[in-house]
Design a protein that fits this description.
The chain is α+β, with helices and mostly antiparallel strands and 482 residues long. The chain has four domains: 125 residues, Zincin-like; 129 residues, Neutral Protease, domain 2, CATH 1.10.390.10; 67 residues; 122 residues, Tetratricopeptide repeat domain (Serine Threonine Protein Phosphatase 5, Tetratricopeptide repeat, Alpha Horseshoe), CATH 1.25.40.10. Helix content is 44%, strand content 19%. It has 15 helices and 17 strands. A five-stranded mixed β-sheet has the order 5-6-7-9-8. A three-stranded antiparallel β-sheet has the order 12-13-16, with no helix packed on it. The chain has a three-stranded antiparallel β-sheet with strand order 15-14-17. Strand 6, helix 1 and strand 7 form a beta-alpha-beta unit. This is Tetratricopeptide repeat protein. Pfam families: Peptidase_M1, TPR_11. InterPro entries: Peptidase_M1_aminopeptidases, Peptidase_M1_dom, Peptidase_M4/M1_CTD_sf, TPR-like_helical_dom_sf, TPR_rpt. Keywords: TPR repeat. GO terms for molecular function: metalloaminopeptidase activity; peptide binding; zinc ion binding.
Length: 482
Amino acid sequence: PAGFRVLSSGVAVPAAGGQGITFKSTTPGFYGSLALVQGEPRRVESEGSVTEVWFRGERQANAQAWGEETGRVMAYLTSVFGVPPYRSLTLVETGEGAPNGYAAPGILFISTSAAGAKPNLRLLANQITRQWYGILFSPAHRNHIWITNGMARYAEILYLEHLNGAQAVEPEIRDLYVDALTVTDAPVRQAARFEDYSPEFFAITGSKGAAVYHMLRWVIGDQAFFKFLKAATDQFANRSVTTDDVRRLAESISGENLQGFFIQWLESTDAPEFRLKYTIYRTQKGFRVMGTIQQDLDTFRMPVELKIETEGNPEFQRVIVVGPSTDFSVDTFGKPRKVIIDPNGRVLRFSRDMRVAVAIRRGEQFAEIGQYNDALKEYQKALEVNPISSLAHYRVGEVFFLMGNYQSAANSFREALNGDQEPSWTVVWSHINLGKIFDITQQRDRARNEYQQALRTKDNTQGALEEAAKYLQEPYQRKENQ
């Protein structure tokens, strides 16, 4: 159409007579994605690269910030992966309902809902990584897609770690592990069993794939791991890759036999749950902690860190846990107070808190697609492990509210208030939802009291205070589809 142009990957070659255009490339890749654009792009120079940003309407005001952040992310990822296949990128706004992000050679497609005023760091790190992992080289078939999806997901964490430090991403790693443990009915190397874009597919290829990379980093060490990342883009360029290719490369760089590691995490669905027994002895030079690490997997072999808290500085020891029972001995100068296994959460494993979190996450996944009875079953599993989990009670309340069972919803929100109040936002939102229930059931004074209690928390998580203030002035109205 007049006034429009076509964007795609490769070199544009106009057809004779100006009635068409052909895009040509000299390297193999997944070509064919295109966009019709109108007007002129915002060209943004940042960190040595130039980004063309094609945002529309009011989102054009966001183009500068997105271009600058794209340059910063590209600079960091280049330092990690090596020379990119495309030095400069084009960002194109798609529309509502489209995936938040999609990567084509040299182009990132960003949905209208994702193209906000503040650039989405996770989205950019994930999609730009795919210029290497997915475009420069790709998995041989869907059972190896963890190689690309996992690295794209892990790059989000690497970039946040680069910006904020290792400690800042510890909650990110825990959240990653929770998502990875939600799928236990197929191993990573059988990902083809799941539908594309399903929660299970992304949990097993993205989250568990990223968890595998994070654990590999712990096993072989930072120096070898980042050398492995750069070597991958050199050795795998312009070809398809299998899991065995990745293993062999990691082994050649680290000098370690990683067959057991790859079998454990990519060909099995199990994860350990550690139990620790130990005794403290006094020695001539200080103290000795002798104990046993137990878990239930016969085939498990993995280095695990121990932290011994003492009256002085803590002591750390790396223990190779092999099979169901492994003995250890650690000498300390100061008197030991406590022994903690895997203090930095490096190993993908179950624990009491993790089982609660995984059950809640599964419930949330069912609730998102309207399978409320299945969601309630998962939340109940969480409450069987931790009866005072405020988050589990809150999620139960949400489901009952959506089902129109207001008495049961009110009971659950009360239980959330009387529970462990973790996370803390469950308090303010339980009061708000109780207020809505009382408004629906025509108990305005009680509703106002709940909104006032919500305001007194001073917790504005997800705009809670504005929500409470709104309904304090005007009663909540039940939606007709409820």
